Amino acid sequence: MTDVIIETHAPLLQARDIVKSFGPVKAVRSISLDVRVGEVLGLVGENGAGKSTLLSLMSGTLAPDSGELMFNGSTTQFDSYRAATESGIFRIFQHQALVPNMTVAENVYLAHEKAFTRFGIISQRRMVQKTQEIFDELSVDLDPTAELDSLKFAERQVVEIVRSLAQARLLGITHPVILHDEPTSALSREQIEFFFDFVRRIKNQAAQVFVSHRLDEIIELCDRMVVLKDGTVVSVQNDPTALTEKEIHSLMVGREAERHTRAARTNDETEPRLELSGFTGEGFSDISLQILPGEVLGVAGVVGSGKSDLGRAVFELGQGATGTLKVNGVEPARQGSRAGIRSSLGYVSNERHRDGIIAGMSVSHNISLPEIGAALGPVIVSGNRETTNADTAIKDLNIKAPGPDTLVGNLSGGNQQKVLLARWITLGSKLLVLDNPTNGVDVGAKAEIYRIIEGLTQQGVSVMLISDDLPEILSMSDRIVVMKDGKVTSTVAVDVTAPPSEVDLVAAMV
Ligand SMILES: Nc1ncnc2c1ncn2[C@@H]1O[C@H](COP(=O)(O)OP(=O)(O)OP(=O)(O)O)[C@@H](O)[C@H]1O
């Protein structure tokens, strides 16, 4: 950790009584808050509490219905994200806005090449030099000439933040506002340390807001914390370290989170639901494992260990892979994901935006998609059944949506994730491959999802739970396989009364 002497500053960005509704949904009801240079302000709240809407209002993607934004002491109105960045407000998303096959320096000055152009020629040398200067100043040990692709995810995130600082300087702005929107959800613990260290190091350079569902991270990183509930600020805490996760959660919802404890597997069927032997494909090799009916097999490993590749390959029934894959004792034809669905497999990917959700479709259509997608011929899903299924899912998974016809793109991130899970539950899949299924889901909803998974396993559903969330994998799994460099390096049986510690699991992972 780097020690930084923090200077105190006047508020850089202020929201005053800001209000935003979407039709009947009051996403933000009269919120006022200050963001200051020298601090990281944590923003927490349940799924749908209004965090993303507030960030969109502060960064010009949404206009408030009423209320005002003050930047540097003057009332401001940004009519686009571009206008906000030109004033020095940057939002950093989980899905990085970087260009993979360009160099680090080119990414840092993306869309600002003009500053390095003379007589129509871009001076790469000056761009690299400027990037190196800023890296030196911020003690960033990265090569400006490296291709972005060669960097780890957390390093790319640092490049994105440096870009905000560098571009602000080009525009003559001394202190930008940096809005970190759930930046850690795709990071391993080691990468989180690296990222946090950098965020702390730039405290005096920018005013930073940090949104996360991981309350331990809020306690670890943030100097102040604002708790949102139903679009209002319900609490401002000047020292989050004085609180426990449980206390923060009770501020968020008005009750304390229950820690999930699981009953041991009761199913006594012995024919494996899934059996892999010598299973080899892109990103993993020689995998041998079994999952029994009603069993949760946790798959742990650092980012890049091959666990996500393995999960996807199982769902695709080993298309393009070698070795044995059996579902219920039979080797199915390796025909990809549609055939996987027909073999009663369900899959939640860790990239909900890339291969999960269809934002422009309703909740009910999103839920019935696999049924339609997997069919060999035309299929009729009655509108009534679709609506009933969606109504049930909304109730069971506590999806915050006005109704089954709501477009999924209009739901908060965590609620979109619940819609993805609902697909497979509705379809009655017997083997669920879940890759970080509670990514972006709040603590309360997580407990609901765990209860649902447990209910499914009691009905004989098997689960391959791939997760970077160690408490999740430890509390949900009957057995855990640990992967490293594409191979299974150990298998741990979990005794529900005395599960292994996180430290033991991490030691096996690295
Ligand atoms: N474009 C939109 N159209 C309609 N409703 C919307 C839209 N964007 C957000 N909402 C609604 O506004 C409310 C607040 O959503 P928001 O995305 O701000 O929550 P959040 O706190 O960021 O949640 P999460 O933690 O799940 O990301 C939710 O009820 C959501 O469904």
TrEMBL record:
<dbReference type="InterPro" id="IPR050107">
    <property type="entry name" value="ABC_carbohydrate_import_ATPase"/>
</dbReference>
<dbReference type="InterPro" id="IPR027417">
    <property type="entry name" value="P-loop_NTPase"/>
</dbReference>
<protein>
    <submittedName>
        <fullName>Sugar ABC transporter ATP-binding protein</fullName>
    </submittedName>
</protein>
<dbReference type="InterPro" id="IPR017871">
    <property type="entry name" value="ABC_transporter-like_CS"/>
</dbReference>
<dbReference type="InterPro" id="IPR003593">
    <property type="entry name" value="AAA+_ATPase"/>
</dbReference>
<dbReference type="Pfam" id="PF00005">
    <property type="entry name" value="ABC_tran"/>
</dbReference>
<keyword id="KW-0677">Repeat</keyword>
<feature type="region of interest" description="Disordered">
    <location>
        <begin position="257"/>
        <end position="276"/>
    </location>
</feature>
<feature type="domain" description="ABC transporter">
    <location>
        <begin position="13"/>
        <end position="510"/>
    </location>
</feature>
<keyword id="KW-0762">Sugar transport</keyword>
<keyword id="KW-0472">Membrane</keyword>
<keyword id="KW-0067">ATP-binding</keyword>
<feature type="compositionally biased region" description="Basic and acidic residues">
    <location>
        <begin position="257"/>
        <end position="274"/>
    </location>
</feature>
<keyword id="KW-1003">Cell membrane</keyword>
<keyword id="KW-0547">Nucleotide-binding</keyword>
<dbReference type="InterPro" id="IPR003439">
    <property type="entry name" value="ABC_transporter-like_ATP-bd"/>
</dbReference>
<dbReference type="GO" id="GO:0005524">
    <property type="term" value="F:ATP binding"/>
</dbReference>
<keyword id="KW-1278">Translocase</keyword>
<keyword id="KW-0813">Transport</keyword>
